[in-house]
Every structure is written in structure tokens, then in C-alpha cells.
Amino acid sequence: MASIFNSLNIGYSGLNAAQIGIDTTGHNISNAETEGYTRQRVVTSEATPIAITPGARGNGTKIAEIVRVFDSFVNDRYSAAAQNKEYSDTLKKNLEELSTYFPDIENVGIKEDLKNYFDLWQSLASNPSNSAVKVALAQQTQTLTQHISQTQDKIAALQKSTDNQLLVNVEEVNRIGEQIANLNGAINTAESDGVSNANDLRDQREMLSMSLEKLIGAKVFSGNIQTNMPVDGNIATKTGNYTIQVGGFNIVDGSSFHPIGIDAKSNAGQFNDIYYERQDGVQFHFADKITGGKIGALIELRGSLIGSDGTFKDGFLQDTMNTFDVFSKGLIEATNNLYAQTATKTMQSNGLSFSDNQTLLSTGENFQAGTFDLVAYDINGNEVGRRSVAIDTSTVIDNASATNLMSDGVTKNSIAEQLRSQKDDNKDNNSLNDIDDMITASFAKPSNIFTLSMKGNYADAGYTFAIEDHGTNFAGVTGVSRFLDGNNGKNIELNAALQNDSSSIRAFKAPSAGDNQTALDMVQLQFSSFDFKEASNKTTTDTMYGFFDHMVTRIGTKTNAVITSNDTITAQFNAIKQEHDSISKVSIDEEMANLIRYQTSYGAAAKVITTIDQMMTTLLGIKQ
């Protein structure tokens, strides 16, 4: 049966509801600028009524729950947009840095150095014996090669920087993942009564989950989504088991956490490999599975698959360095192939990467089938002998110490043997004044250096020789007579002997006064097309300028595309963020209105209690 004390409890329930409403409103206002905080609402319902005749009598109010105004559907779009923006921002930042290494649109940079380099060959052609021009040419060559190697070093440093960033960010992913697993356990405990909502813990988890999505493109899976339409149409909350996957592998499964492994053990400490390790200790290569977020962008730039040589098989920066090496090697080979036509007494190759018995066309180097001529000159520059040397599928450099048969039974022929064979090169029926009488050819092991030398008596008489190529690129690949040392963008430089004595630079073809043919041919080289051979055995035929422009344009085009895409992604992110904030972010104006409302409710409930107090006083007064 209802009593006056029950009426007092009704007033108290109103006071309590208003007090909790004020507490929640104050909590919202205090956290209005807290990152990741979701505004909360107090949900009240009627207390169980008292059953009396003639009907149920109200029994005040009770707090049903305190809920977050949070929409999982909007939050999922917000997280995806944040992930895309982080991915795009990372690409944009690094590609803009890469683009600064190629400032060629401002008439500075490698292309301008290349133009000045060929201009000085033109000056040397006009003054083939001028020592000052030779000094200037040597200096400009060193400027060009230094800029090439410095640019390659900068790209390599940028790639190493992305690798260092990967290490830091993967460690951050592991730290956040462990925190989320711990929060999952805490949320399950807090909500185990089926009534309480761990709102603040859920806010922390959502913020950390978004950080994971931004970092590594993680995907969140949960059992169910519950809506609360009667309270607020914007409420849709994930419930049930909480799992986070990266690349199809679980890193968070409820309160369990599986860290991502990263170390440089498999690559001799040069680059970090990312892997997923099962509980049984089996490791899976993992980097190529990560395609989103900041880490996904860093991997796209750095590369994901490390080859046996310690370099990456993919990645935009690695591709750029590879292409830059192809350009540099093309410049080295084309220049040296042409410079070999200047007559000298001795030619000595670089240390070759292949054996004396390996067919040249199978080495992976830029040899081509065809012929080159070995030409001998007397002291006055007159041609005194010429021998054509062929390169085909069976040609090796020197098979004197190894088998002379190929697997299909075809007899190998060698460069050295073609030069040693006795022929009447001069057509004078004299067997003592031919190329095999003048020049020796030898291949030294284990240095793998091929040497051509004018024999003593002819060398003493002032005889010299040169190589005229007809498409084989033999002198260019082997470097038997070098203007440029090195074989890639990192080690390209002016030949060491020419650095020490620039006056020994030769502009002539035949050693006769006023001959400037080689210098003229060097000038023409900038307009000639030749083959650039890449590691994949893909061959690109282009001019020196054309290939360089193609490389720079590729970088510029990708950078511009990323910048344009970033603008779109940023606009989309801002729009979705605004929608998300309109639902979940605290509005001070709205909370102030709620505060006034709850204050009024509290005063009214207090008035109810005051009224009941007066009623009890009157009742007690009757007894007296």
C-alpha cells in the first residue's frame, strides 16, 4: 500500500535523476576538447509502479542507463577516410621530397649538367689539343657524375628513412594492439552485469582502433551492432567479440594480442623484414599483405620483398634507384664504347662479373650480337691493320682454360681466340704484320680482367690500336678503354687516371695532329639512340635525354597524381569528420541547455520533497 514515505521516495528519485543528469552533463562539458571522447546521455524510465486499487500508482523514475551517442556505421566510414588520408599524406610527403632531387624544370640539375658536359666535348672538338678545355671537361664530368651519385645517395637515404619509420610505426602498432586487448578485457568485466556501459573505456578503444587503422590499415570485426532508436536514432554500437585483423591475420582477438614481428636478421641488418609469427613459431612474410595506412604507404615506397642481394624487388623508391642505375650505366657504357675508338697502347677491362667460359649473350649484360673491329695505327696515325671480331650466341671472352663445347654440342668461339688466330689482315701476304702479331689478348683469374696490349716491338715503334664498334657494345660493357669508371648511379665517376691527369683526355680517333673525330662523336652521342638494359632484361631504346626525361616525368606524374588524389581524399575526410562530430562530439550550447533543464528538474524534485515534509509535519501535528 502506498504511503507518504513512498511519495518522499518519488521526490528523491527525481532528485537523483537530475543529479546524475547534471553529473553526465558536467562530464560532457569537461571533455568537450578531449580527443576521441563521445558525448553521453542519461536514459531514464519509469520505476515499477505500485499495484493498488483502483489502479497502478506511479513510483517515480529510475536511471535505465548512460549511453554514448555513437554511430558505428558513421564511425566506420570516418575510420576508413582517416586511413586513406594517412596513406595519402605519407605518399605525398615522401614523393614531394623525392621530386626535389630532380629540379630539372628550373634549368638546374643533372639534365643541365649533362648539357654542359656535351657542350664541353663540342669545345674540345674545336680545340682538340687545348689543355684548358680538357681541364674544364674533366671538371664538368666530375660535377655531372657527383650530382648523379649524390642524387642516388639521397634516394637511398630516403628509402632507409622509410625503413626506419616502419620500425618505429610497427612497434607503435604492437603497443596499441596490446592496449586494445587489455581494454577488451576491462570492457567485458565492466559490462558483465548486462546493464552497465563502459562508455569511457569504449571511447579509448575506438580512438586506439582508429590509430591502428591510420597506421596499418587494420580492420575491426565485432559480433553484432545494436541500435537504440527509441532513445536516439544515431546510436548504433558494436557488441560481442572484438577482433582486429591486418592483412588477413588477427593481431587482436578479444583480450588476446598477437604482435607483428619486425627485424633485419634476414637482411644482414640493412632493411627490416615484417612478419607474422604463429603460436607454434612458424613465421609468415607479412609486408606485402599490408596495403593501407601509413605503414602501407611506406612499404609501397620502400618495397616489401627483399631479394637475395639485399635490395628490394619492388617499391617505388627501389624502382627509381634501379631506373637511375640503368640511366647511369647506359651513360657509362655509351661513353666508354665510343671512347674505346681513341687509339692507345693498352686496354684493360673492369673486373668482370662473368667467367671466361660464359657466353657473352647469356651474362645478362648489355652485349649485343654483331661485330667490332680492332684497328691498329702506326706512329703517324695511318691505319696498318684491321680485324673484325664477331659476337654471337656461342661467343665467350676466352675459353682457353675451359671446355669448348656448349650443351648442344656447338663449339664455342672466343674473343681472345679470334684475335690470336693467324690471318692476313693487310692482304699483303706477310704473316708477320697482322693484328695477331701486334696485339696480345689475355684473361686473368680470379680478377676476371680482360687485357689487350700492343706487343713490345710495335709499342716501342709508336704503334697504337682502337676498337670501333658496330653494335656489340663490347667495349662499353667491359670498360676496356674507359672515360668513365663505375657501373651504376652510386659509383659513376671520371676515370681515375684522367682525374689525375686531365691532359691525357683524347679527342682523336687516329693519333694524328688535329684529329677530333672522337670528340665530335661524343657530341653526337647526346642525340643518338641506344639500348638501356634493365635488370628484368627489358631493353628500352632511347636517347640519353629521352630516357632521363622519362624517368623524371614518371616521378613527377606520380607525385602530381598523389597530390591531386590527396586533395580529394582530404575533402572527403573533412566531410565525413564533420558528420561524425555532429553526432558524437560535445556541443557546449546543447550541454548548457541540458544543464539548465536538469537544474530546473532538480529544483522541482526538491519542491516535491519540501511539500512532503510539510505534509508529514501536519500529520505529526494532528497527533499532538
Strand order of the largest sheet: 5-6-7-8
**Strand portion:** 15-25%
Helix-residue proportion: 40-55%
- The 3D shape can be described as rod-shaped
Structural class: alpha+beta
Radius of gyration over C-alpha positions, nearest whole angstrom: 40 Å
* Spatial gap, N to C terminus: 25 Å
SS field, number of helical segments = 15
How many strand elements? Answer: 23
Low-pLDDT regions: none
Summarize the biggest pleated sheet.
4 strands, antiparallel
- The average pLDDT score comes to 89
Structural key phrases:
15 helices, 23 strands, alpha+beta, four-stranded antiparallel β-sheet, 624 residues, 47% helix
Q: How are the SSEs ordered, and which strands pair?
A:
Layout: H1 4-30, E1 40-46, E2 50-51, E3 56-57, E4 61-68, H2 72-99, H3 110-126, H4 131-190, H5 199-216, E5 219-227, E6 236-246, E7 249-253, E8 256-257, E9 260-263, E10 273-277, E11 283-285, H6 293-302, H7 316-339, E12 346-348, E13 370-377, E14 383-391, E15 395-396, E16 413-414, H8 415-420, H9 435-438, E17 439-444, E18 449-454, H10 456-460, E19 464-469, H11 474-478, E20 484-485, E21 493-494, H12 496-500, H13 517-525, E22 530-533, E23 539-542, H14 544-584, H15 588-623
Parallel strand pairs: 15-16
Antiparallel strand pairs: 1-4, 2-3, 5-6, 6-7, 7-8, 9-10, 10-11, 12-18, 13-14, 13-19, 17-18, 20-21, 22-23
